[in-house]
Amino acid sequence: MGCRNSKAADTKENHESQDHQQSRSAATPSLTTKAFTSVPPATSQPYILCAVYDGDTIRVRRPQEPKGREHELRLRFLGIDTPELKEQEPFALEAKNHLLELLTGSIHPPKGEIGATVFITPPATGSAVDKYDRMLGIVYVAHEGSMVCVNESLLRKGLARLYEPTPNQLAPDVHRAFEDAQKDARKHKRAIWSLTDEKATVYTTTNGKAYHLKDCEHLRGGGRAGTVGSALDRGLAACRTCHA
Ligand SMILES: [Zn+2]
């Protein structure tokens, strides 16, 4: 880990100077775009990983701060939503374990502070924290010699869904990469998508961001019928009230 990170720091300057010529693979290193993945995005900052809560929430601290709970920040992964561990939703544990493996190399992290270095990119626009005062960000980590975008990896494995309560917080190229990752997971029916019937009927409204079951309160008696697949294709997400 330390080795890779110091290598990353050495080549960061070079990375920044090339930034303008790099296409989207530069801005969104991932498991599948191996050509350019050895350094984190120029907009990211290093943090020390303290703990992993679940598939999309971790605790971190700035490297210049000393160890200690009072210096730790809760981070909610931007642009994705993983199944809830507390509610024992399917694939919640798999999502957490995938996160642990990427970030620590093991699903059994050491006791106390984990100590791995992660790189975090803040939202492209809008607030840097959510309504629960959690920092929002895209997380990158050095893994097997590549810089991996953890948010995208969870999407690609079918262990997270695209989730954007506030528009435009993902940069356009990152947004496209996340959409592609989810499409790939749906196409291969990975994890949570293995449980999704894309032909099932759901209901949508003209300006809504979610698709619903027929009786959902958010439809207020209205809504147009369509399939889950077509709603997902339009970038809509399952309603968090009716769990369509
Ligand atoms: Zn609903």
Automatic annotation (TrEMBL):
Residues 23-33 have a biased composition (Polar residues). Pfam families: SNase. GO terms for molecular function: endonuclease activity; hydrolase activity. The keyword Magnesium does not apply. Keywords: Endonuclease, Hydrolase, Nuclease. Residues 52-195 form the TNase-like domain. The keyword Phosphoprotein does not apply. GO terms for cellular component: cytoplasm. Residues 1-33 are annotated as: Disordered. SUPFAM superfamilies: Staphylococcal nuclease (SSF50199). Residues 7-22 have a biased composition (Basic and acidic residues). InterPro entries: SNase_OB-fold_sf (IPR035437), Staphylococal_nuclease_OB-fold (IPR016071). This is TNase-like domain-containing protein.
